[in-house]
Design goal:
- The complex is a heterodimer of chains A (395) and B (327).
- By secondary structure, chain A is of the alpha/beta class.
- Chain A has eleven helices and 14 strands.
- Chain A has two domains: 210 residues, Response regulator (Rossmann fold), CATH 3.40.50.2300; 110 residues, 3-Layer(aba) Sandwich (Rossmann fold), CATH 3.40.50.
- In chain A, helix 4 links the parallel strand 3 and strand 4.
- In chain A, helix 2 runs parallel beside helix 10, helix 3 packs parallel to helix 4 and helix 10 crosses helix 11.
- The longest helix of chain A is centred in the first third of the chain and has 22 residues.
- Chain A is globular, with a radius of gyration of 23 Å.
- Chain B is built from one helix and 28 strands.
- The termini of chain B are far apart.
- In chain B, strand 21 and strand 22 form a beta hairpin.
- Classes of the chains: A alpha/beta (395), B mainly beta (327).
- At the A-B interface, helix 2, helix 9 and strand 11 of A face strand 15 of B.
Chain lengths: 395, 327
């Protein structure tokens, strides 16, 4: 009896697969990550998950396939976590040669630019879901590339809006000495200028004491400057920033890479149906969804929406649809999202979070823009020298 | 000593409940589900005051009556069940096997088959409310939410928020037979009285699609514009149609307004200011009043239909979601 059931099941599955393969439109996506060694950090208590990004892409794939079932469309995902920059180029070339034309990457700026160069020759689309670098949106302007992760400027502008709205008009800026920390602090300074915030002092943390033991002694002295309303921290790796809170000379809030943080995504976001996305993610992957997971999820869903709406597999058709005002993505941030036609950046509200609650979600009321208030965050058209372009295949 | 107290308590309860019964017989009563309080608020429509607050399962959202209005079905989303409340004494008399995370549902004209959207599992579960058995589970799109059954009982419709479709389920076979693509994040579907037309709201798309039932194709699309409110904040959710076929009311979420639409010409006639983040609505029996649930402000707005004016707001629990009025 059981055996019979089993055979019937197999038979029906086979029938199903025959029907499915007969007319289905297949969309292949590659997810590539490279996480260069960050070196030792003081605050090494909570490491970032190694499968960041990938899990978001996988959840997006599930969502796409559930929709695809009704439209005879199927999506598949190949993924790799490269160990060296050479492996990044090698894998991308292999994938492109095998016919993949849709790439999602969690790569540093340099590797991303290498990949876009290779992929452009194949007429592929690249989704940047790993680099916050402002230059990619203002100067480097890689062709065939869309950014689903916000730029640093979008993050710090969100903080600037909140700070202005709360009348915290004087900042003490503390930064680390890594290139990313300097990039983040440059972004903070740009936002300060934009929103008329005064930076009372700018200091670089270069001490090598173990703050897990001595923060109470070191930080009050380090933060003894002219009076400030808010301490902003630029420490992307989490080297010393976690120890700034509650240890400052003046009892003031801390924001930036630690404290109140602007992010693309965080577990505390639950409005606008986000509770459903969060619970689906946790159910499958047993951890919290983070910013890179969200950016990769949004990239896969962007592909899904474009394929559903255009019923096309042609990358040029997909790219121009995604970059048009026809495109809209429901992405659990309370309003429809689309891409900036000059930089290929996904417009999006930026949640400001603390570990257990959402504090605010700029753009805030009162920050006006002639086109959309989402463009009060990050580089607006006149501030970017990019024009998004798509190169068709030469190979 | 103990038995005596027990009898006294019983006596007290019966006195109270008979008092409740007699008041319920004279006035219309509104039931409101409070999503973040795990309670129902009960409002007397004569006095427009909350008369009682009752504990129910976790995260109550969709609520509907049995056809004879003696029972209330409650989607207790986080308890993964549909609770059945006896309206004579407000006791929970059964928990139906709803599948995980039930959000909205619809009762077939046969008063037995309950079609439940399981938001987390991309399923519609069909339960027989008499035998309490699951009759079928139907695969639909990601995050099913809206559910409606055609007046003739032929179609069960489900909307999926991330797949952006209206799914057409044949209730004879419980098979999914067709899908209509609509704008982003469809939340709610509502048949007109004749069953010839379906109204489907798209929250993020900002539109309401008017779908012809015979062809299952969109024949018209409504959009909304309110002075001083950013178009992205106009997010249609609940829809209610008057029985005379004259008007449609569309709740516009964070725009904090209800759109009044001419149900024949699809022209938007007016916008009524209500509480913050308005979700769902219900009419009283003679359709002279419309109640709206306002999620963020935690209150109910009462609209007088003849004057088309909001006449009162009533504080209820946290995040009121569903509303049903019993004559």
């Amino acid at each position: 009896m059981h055996l019979l059931k089993f055979f019937t099941l197999i038979l029906s599955l086979q029938l199903l697969s025959i029907v499915v393969t007969a007319e289905e439109q297949e969309t292949r996506i590659g997810f590539l990550a490279y996480h260069p060694d960050q070196g030792p950090v003081l605050s090494n208590l909570l490491p970032e998950p190694e499968d960041r990004g990938l899990r978001g892409a996988q959840l997006g794939l599930k969502d796409n396939n559930t929709t695809g079932r009704f439209l005879k469309q199927h999506y598949s995902l190949e993924s790799e976590l490269a160990e060296t920059p050479e492996q990044v180029s090698k894998t991308v070339t292999q994938w492109l040669d095998s016919g993949i034309r849709l790439l999602i990457t969690d790569l540093p700026k340099k590797e991303l630019l290498t990949v876009t160069k290779i992929a452009t020759e194949y007429g592929a689309i690249i989704f940047n879901a790993g680099s916050y670098a402002n230059e990619l949106r203002t100067e480097a302007c890689p062709t065939n590339t869309l950014h689903t992760l916000p730029s640093r400027a979008m993050l710090t502008d969100a903080l600037g809006q909140w700070s202005t709205a709360r009348r915290l008009q004087r900042w003490l800026l503390i930064k680390g000495s890594q290139p990313e920390d300097i990039a983040y602090s440059e972004s903070l300074k740009r936002s300060a200028k934009r929103f008329g915030v005064k930076i009372v002092a700018e200091k670089t943390w270069s001490f090598d004491t173990d703050l897990r033991r001595t923060a109470q002694r070191e930080l009050p002295l380090f933060t003894q400057t002219d009076e400030y309303d808010l301490v902003v921290v630029a420490d992307e790796r989490g080297d010393f920033g976690e120890y700034v809170m509650y240890n400052t000379w003046y009892p003031r809030p801390v924001a930036g890479t630690q404290g109140l943080s602007p992010v693309a995504w965080h577990r505390v976001i639950e409005q606008w149906g986000a509770a459903q996305l969060q619970s689906r993610f946790e159910k499958h992957y047993h951890r919290w969804m983070n910013s890179k997971d969200y950016a990769a999820w949004a990239a896969v869903r962007t592909i899904g929406e474009a394929v559903t709406q255009t019923r096309s597999s042609d990358t040029e058709t997909l790219f121009s649809f995604i970059n048009s005002d026809q495109f809209q993505l429901a992405a659990f941030k309370g309003r429809k999202l689309n891409f900036r036609s000059w930089s290929g950046q996904l417009r999006q509200p930026i949640p400001l979070v603390q570990p257990r609650s959402l504090v605010s979600q700029p753009p805030l009321e009162g920050f006006l823009h002639p086109v959309t208030d989402l463009d009060t965050l990050g580089f607006d058209r006149p501030e970017s020298s990019c024009t998004v372009s798509f190169n068709t295949a030469v190979k | 000593m103990k038995p005596l107290r027990f009898t006294l308590n019983l006596l007290a309860i019966s006195v109270i409940s008979s008092a409740l019964l007699s008041s319920a017989a004279t006035a219309e009563t509104a039931y409101i589900s409070n999503e973040k309080d795990d309670t129902l608020s009960i409002i007397d429509l004569d006095t427009l005051e909350v008369t009682e607050t009752i504990d129910v399962g976790e995260r109550p959202r969709g609520i509907i009556f049995s056809h004879d209005r003696t029972k209330l079905y409650i989607c207790a989303s986080d308890s993964d069940t549909v609770q059945v409340m006896d309206l004579s004494d407000h006791s929970i008399i059964a928990q139906l096997p709803s599948g995980e995370d039930p959000e909205q549902f619809a009762l077939h004209p046969d008063d037995r088959r309950l079609y439940i959207a399981n938001e987390d599992d991309a399923l519609v579960t069909v339960v027989d409310v008499q035998t309490q058995e699951v009759l079928a589970q139907i695969d639909v799109g990601v995050e099913p939410e809206g559910m409606a059954i055609s007046p003739d009982g032929k179609w069960a419709l489900s909307t999926s928020e991330t797949t952006n479709m209206v799914h057409w389920i044949d209730t004879e076979t419980n098979q999914l037979v067709d899908n209509t693509l609509v704008d982003q994040r469809p939340r709610h579907v509502e048949f007109n009285k004749e069953g010839s037309i379906v109204w489907a709201s798209s929250e993020i798309g900002g539109t309401v699609s008017i779908i012809d039932v015979a062809s299952r194709k969109i024949q018209h699309k409504l959009s909304f514009k309110i002075r001083g409110i950013h178009p992205d904040k106009i997010q249609p959710v609940g829809i209610k149609l008057t029985d005379d076929g004259k008007y449609a009311f569309v709740a516009l979420g964070p725009a904090n307004h209800i759109a009044l639409v001419d149900a024949k010409t699809y022209e938007v006639l007016d916008y009524l200011l209500v509480g913050r983040r308005v979700w769902h609505m219900d009419f009283n029996a003679d359709q002279s009043r419309l109640l709206t649930t306002n999620g963020i402000s935690g209150d109910i707005s009462v609209i007088d239909i003849e004057d088309m004016k909001v006449i009162k707001s009533i504080k209820v629990g946290r995040y009121p979601w569903g509303v049903r009025i019993k004559p």
